[in-house]
Design a protein that fits this description.
Largest interface: A-B, 33 and 27 residues
Number of domains of chain A: 1
Shape of chain A: globular
Number of helices of chain A: 5
Number of helices of chain B: 6
Distance between the termini of chain A: 49 Å
Largest sheet of chain A: none
CATH topology of one domain in chain B: Hypothetical Protein Ychn, Chain: A
Oligomer: heterodimer
Helix content of chain B: 25-40%
Chain lengths: 102, 178
């Protein structure tokens, strides 16, 4: 089977967050998830797509809002993305680093 | 052009390197006060540590126990007397008027709701769900005649000072006293 690779320049900031969230792709998500040792399950994808949707709607995201999303509770969110869930999930979802303190 | 999807990003590698050097791995937050603003400061710091991938333990003592008491947790007040930072333009004796403190605390809580800040009990549940651990001080609990069942379900145990210090075992632990 022949495969083709799409080559394009993707810009990230110093911490590895996408500078332009429209450059995001599922391949990009898989790459960042692998770098963070997170195997992506359907539940992960649900959360990632939800985060992207909310970001596009202009919602300031917080862990509490993810917990109230109906997709996962806070404990499950920490379980899916261990070690700073919103920070890591945002990076994988290609949206800016969260700025909420709560 | 390089294949960006297969090559590691230098910036990411640098962040990971910094992570190894991270000096604050765990915070032990001691909350000895029961005023709204002090309790929130403790909760925000504990929750913020967990959200940032660090470990957090909380130890509530003296009036801080109000924050984890079933009866009082969601009814904390802010001091309007003897609090020079509170409405400095207002004559201090106003703060002593009956009901004023409850009113001021209510207004403050309303402002916090606007900022999407959870109430104390929900905050404690969030910290618990995030893997943080919450403890009560034995001496203070004895003094205020509080038993485990008087405290929120998320409170893991009533412990001694020595046991509180043991929470800091391991590398990179820091104490924060409020």
């Amino acid at each position: 089977m022949e495969t083709a690779t799409i080559e394009k320049q993707i810009e990230v900031n110093q911490e590895g967050y996408l500078k332009d969230s429209s450059q995001w792709s599922e391949d990009w998500a898989k790459k960042i998830a692998t770098e963070n040792n997170i195997p992506l399950t359907p539940k992960h994808w649900d959360v990632l797509h939800w985060l992207r949707k909310k970001h596009e709607e202009g919602v300031a995201l917080s862990i509490r809002k993810v917990g109230n999303s109906g997709l996962v509770d806070i404990k499950q969110f920490y379980g899916l993305f261990p070690g700073g869930p919103l920070k890591i999930a945002s990076k994988i979802a290609g949206i800016p680093k969260p700025v909420s303190c709560i | 052009m390089e294949d960006v999807l297969t090559k590691p990003i230098p910036a990411v590698a640098a962040v990971r390197e910094n992570k190894k050097k991270e000096t604050v791995k765990k915070v032990i937050i001691i909350c000895s006060k029961g005023t709204l603003e002090d309790v929130y400061a403790a909760l925000i710091m504990a929750n913020g540590a967990l959200a940032d991938g660090r470990d957090a333990k909380m130890f509530f003592t003296f009036f801080g126990l109000d924050a984890i008491s079933k009866k009082k947790a969601d009814h904390l007040h802010t001091a309007t007397v003897g609090n020079s930072a509170f409405m400095p333009a207002m004559p201090t004796m106003m703060g002593g008027l009956p009901g004023f403190e409850a009113f001021a605390s209510h207004m403050m809580q309303k402002q916090m709701d606007k900022l999407d800040m959870p109430h104390v009990t929900e905050f404690i549940q969030m910290i618990d769900a995030a893997g943080g651990e919450i403890f009560a001080c034995k001496l203070a609990a004895d003094m205020f005649k509080l038993k485990k069942e008087d405290l929120l379900d998320e409170v893991k145990d009533i412990i001694t000072v020595g046991e509180m210090y043991a929470l800091a075992d391991g590398e990179g632990a820091h104490f924060i006293f409020i």
